[in-house]
Structure formats: structure tokens, C-alpha cells
Amino acid sequence: MEEEEKEIVEETIDKKEKKSKKKKFKLTKKKVIIGLILLYIIVSFIRGRMSTEENTNKVQVDTIEKRTLVTTISASGRLESTTSKAYDSMLSGREVKKVYVKVGDKVNKGDILCSFDMDDAQDQYNLASSSLKTATEQANIQVDQAKRALDKVSSVKNDYEALKSDINGLRTRMEQINIGKKQYEGNAEKLAELQREEAEVSAQLAEKWAKFQVMESSYNESQVNESINQAQDAVRSAELAAKAAQDQSKAQISQIKSTLDKGKIVSAVDGTVTQVNVKEGDTFTGGTVIKVEGINEFKIEAQISEYDIADIKEGMKVLIKTDSTREEELNGTVTFVAPAATEAASSMMAAAQTSTAPSYKIEISLDETNDRLRIGMTAKLSIIKEEAKDVLSVPYDAVYTREDGTNYLKVQENDEIREINVTKGLESDYYTEVKSDEIKEGMTVVLPDLNNQDALEEMINSMTVTTGI
Fold this sequence. Notes:
Helix content is about 45%, strand content about 30%. The protein is α+β, with helices and mostly antiparallel strands and about 475 residues long. Strands 2-10-14-12-11-15 form a 6-stranded antiparallel beta barrel. The chain has a 4-stranded antiparallel β-sheet with strand order 3-9-8-5, with no helix packed on it. The two termini are about 45 Å apart.
């Protein structure tokens, strides 16, 4: 019985203590609230006085200045060589005979990079070259024989026609001499000269006429012409056969030589060796043998989101920065914009998932070289979307907007402030182009007063939440 009474007493004491603590806690919270309210009133009063004094004595101002304003699209890209060349080979199954370079070596255009064992192809080339020489000699002999036969049959006709022409010429001369004899009947000296010539021409004519009669007895013009045509055909046939044999041999040689040429991989560019995927003595199984990347000219490849790609065009100027060039700003130009998207994986951090978002490849050429650049470096890009050169501009927040949507500046002149209506032009990150016939460079504009009590109220609200009030 006594134990039960003792427990009841202890329970009663515990309840009283808990009730007392709750009262104290409520009192404490009330004190905090009252303290915060007093602090708010005091600070608000002091800030109000200070703000009034500052507004009376000083306002924040800036100046209308001429600037070049730009709007840009930000992106990042990777430096690539414009003369990158990956060398592969169709000589699968052949032994790698010699590797002349290693990764990091500098090479010049025309340097041999690697060679394969091509002894069998070289033997085939030598045999084909010898066969071509023999075939050419034999074909030339046949052509020469056909030409000699043509010359022989042609000479018969030529001799006949030449003799016939000589006889006609001698007869014509005899007629001229007879006419001359009649003209010079009274001139003994001239007449004797013509008589001597007449005797000579007559003898020549008799000799050629005798030959002509012998030739004519066996000469058949149609047969001779037919023989000439046949001989000409034989010459053409021999020449065509010779050309066909040579072409066939040359084609075979060209094919073998093409294989031989592939046995040596020669650099087509000046650059640095970045990959060597074979070793001497290996049997080549295909793929890229060696890769050389140019060291003098770079381009930048970047992926652009579907949000920005429609605003990017070839020819746009680009400002470029890299870690290696520090604060130096390089200039570039957009040279390629992909017409189709490339699927690129993007991490969805909030959902801890991976999804694909379309992006578009662009390429940018560098307008100048820099010896600090290297292949594979990351470049920060500012693609100039719009540009306004040498325009009047003010800080972004110096342009005020009325309820009806019109814009104006507060211009300070002789300690007086007046409003001037303006039209906004291009807006950059910090400045806005302004247009008006009433403004000019050097004018002072008033910036808005940013003093307010929002931050204090937020601080009090935060304290209230923290204390559980």
C-alpha cells in the first residue's frame, strides 16, 4: 500500500516538473519573438535613416558609353588536327617487315612509316615487266613486216604513176619545142639550140616509153589498189595486236605495282605519330596501322544542344580560350554545322538514370596558330550570335520600364534628374544598347537604389524557422 502511494506521489511530481518546463519554454519563445521584433524595428529605423541620408547626398550613377556588344552561345569543344590521317592496309596476312616510327615521332610528308614483306609481289612484277618487253618486241616485228609489204606494193603503183607523169611531161616539152622552131625560122642560132634539145627530149621519151610499155603489160591498177588496201589493213591489224598485247601486260604490271606500292605506308602530311598498332615480324590482321596528326593546323569539334543549334550558322565568329593559353583569347570561325543529330549520352543526376539527348556536331577553324596548343585539349567557346559595334550603351539595370512597357533612362544633368525615353537594342550579359535622339556619349545615368529590407526579413524568417517558432 505504501509503495502504491509512493508511486502516485512520484508521478504527480513528474507531471508538475514537465508542466513547469513547458511554461519556461513558452516563456523563452515569447522572449525570442519579442527580441526579434525589437531588433527588426531598431535595424529598420537605422537603415531607414541611413538610406534617407544616402539618397539625399548620393545616388549611384554610370555613363553612357560607346561599346561593342555581343550575344554569345557558350559551348566547349576538343582540339583536333585538320590534317589527321589514319593509315590502314588491305594487305591482311602479310608480315610486317619494318616499322620506321614510334608514337611521338615527328614526320614529314613523304616519310616511310612502315613496310610489309612484298618479295613475292616483286618477283611477279619483274616477270611481268620482262614479258611486256618480249611481247612489245614481237609486236613491233610484225608491224615492221606489214609496213614493208605495204611499201613494196605501194612502190609498184608509185613507179607506174611516176613514169607515166614523166612521159606526159616530155611530150609537153616536145610540143613546146616544135612551136619554138616555127617562131625562130630566121634565127639560125636559136633554131640550132632547139634542135639539140629536141634530140635529147626525143631520146628520153623513147627510153621511158619503152619502159612504160613493159610495165603496162603486167600492170593491173585494180589489183594493185587491192594489194595496197590489204597491206594497209595488215599494218593496222599488226599495230592493234601490238597495242592489245602491251595494254594487257601493262594492266597486269600496274596491278602488281599497286600491290607493291601498298607494301610501303608513306606519310601524306607533316605531323606527329599518335598511334602505332603493329610490330616488326607480326602478321598483319587488318585495321589501322599508324595514325599521324598534323601539328601546324587545328580545328575544334564541339557538340551543340538542340536548343542552340538552330542559331548557329557557318561563318559565325567564335572566341576561344584554353587552359594552356591562359587568358589569351583566340579567334575562330564556324566552318561546319551538322544537318543531323548525334545521339549523346547524358547523365540524369536527379533520377540516377542515363538517357540520350540529341546533339549536333560543329567544326570551328582557328584564324591564327599558337605554339601552346596541343591535340585533344579542351576549348571554351563563345560563339558570337549577334554583334553591335560602337553603339551607345548603359548597364542593363539603368534602363527603367513603365507600366505601359515604354523604356526610359534617368539622366542626371546639373544635379537635376530627367527621364528620357529610349528604345532598347542588343542586350549583352551586362550592357544594353539604347537608342534615342536625345542621348549622347558621356551622359550620366542614374542606377536604381538597391537598398531594401528584403534581406533582413528573410534573415528573421530563417531564424524563426530555426528556433521552431
